[in-house]
């Protein structure tokens, strides 16, 4: 239990450090307010020179109080460490992190990628950094709109505000690039990088295909009975998950064993279990 707790906190700490570097080295100097409270803090920093981390922390305090009252202590507590740590590291690292580029496109791309990795680690290790995510969760209890839609609206308003304050539509567009890139990378980090392919094979020769899969690919397959509603005939459906390098070989197996088979091929972001990544804990 202690080791799992320690692993969570180390993972969250690494995540907030990477996020802080993204803000200090790329986004804040370039005036890229990529949504959230960090975006608000970036605007206020350039208007009044207020420290970004301190502003983020101050803005989060009423959200924490509101969240405890509306959502309960248990929901809120997971956000406290990540929020405080991010605020501290953003201001703590400023003197030591150089501005790495003055090119807005590079700043939006690298800042978004680094922020995505950092926040992805924070979420993967069972924490958040508060901010607009917490606000969206609270507002959802009043309006009934899902969190993703509320986040889009809130982040959009921050981006528009930044564009008006800095009098630059370009900065707003670069901020959108950062948001989309960070969101995509967050999903990659949370879902995992060991992507694979899932085959769903509708066939009359399920036994022959499954035996070939086991023999030639050292993979397994699961079968169940099915009925074709157009033909009315009885068939079987096989499902098998393989690595990307094995896709062509599995297609060849199906084609050789049953040229009339119907194949559905889908991307799988993370596979846990025998033959793939070991299923050990929710954080793996």
UniProtKB/TrEMBL annotation:
Q: Membrane-spanning regions, if any? A: 9-28, 48-69, 76-98, 104-123, 143-165, 171-190
| Predominant location category | membrane
Report what the protein is called: DUF2179 domain-containing protein
Q: How does it sit in the membrane?
A: Multi-pass membrane protein
Keyword annotations: Cell membrane, Membrane, Transmembrane, Transmembrane helix
User: Which compartments is it annotated to reside in?
Assistant: Cell membrane
Q: Does the keyword Kinase apply?
A: no
Signal sequence: where? Answer: none
Q: Name one Pfam family in it.
A: YitT_membrane
* GO CC terms, sorted: plasma membrane
Residue ranges annotated for the DUF2179 domain, each copy included = 219-273
């Amino acid at each position: 239990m202690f080791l799992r707790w320690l692993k969570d906190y180390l993972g969250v700490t690494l995540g907030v450090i990477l996020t802080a570097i993204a803000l200090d080295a790329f986004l804040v100097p370039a005036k890229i307010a990529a949504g959230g409270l960090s975006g608000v803090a970036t605007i206020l920093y350039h208007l009044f020179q207020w420290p970004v981390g301190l502003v983020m922390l101050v803005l989060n305090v009423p959200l924490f109080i509101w969240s405890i009252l509306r959502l309960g202590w248990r929901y809120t507590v997971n956000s406290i460490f990540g929020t405080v740590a991010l605020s501290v590291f953003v201001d703590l690292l400023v003197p030591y992190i150089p501005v790495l580029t003055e090119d807005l496109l590079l700043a939006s791309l690298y800042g978004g990628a680094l922020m995505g990795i950092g926040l992805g680690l924070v979420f993967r290790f069972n924490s958040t950094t508060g901010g607009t995510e917490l606000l969206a969760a609270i507002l959802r209890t009043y309006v009934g709109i899902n969190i993703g839609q509320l986040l889009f609206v809130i982040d959009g308003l921050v981006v528009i505000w930044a564009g008006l304050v800095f009098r630059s539509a370009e900065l707003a567009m670069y901020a959108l690039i950062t948001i989309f890139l960070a969101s995509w990378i967050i999903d990659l980090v949370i879902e995992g990088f060991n992507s694979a392919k899932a085959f769903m094979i509708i066939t009359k020769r399920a036994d022959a295909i499954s035996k070939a899969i086991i023999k030639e690919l050292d993979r397994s397959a699961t079968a169940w009975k099915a009925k074709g509603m157009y033909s009315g005939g009885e068939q079987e459906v096989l499902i098998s998950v393989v690595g990307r390098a094995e896709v062509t070989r599995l297609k060849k197996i199906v084609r050789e064993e049953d040229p009339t088979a119907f194949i559905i091929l889908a991307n799988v972001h993370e596979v846990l279990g025998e033959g793939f990544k070991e299923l050990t804990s929710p954080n793996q």
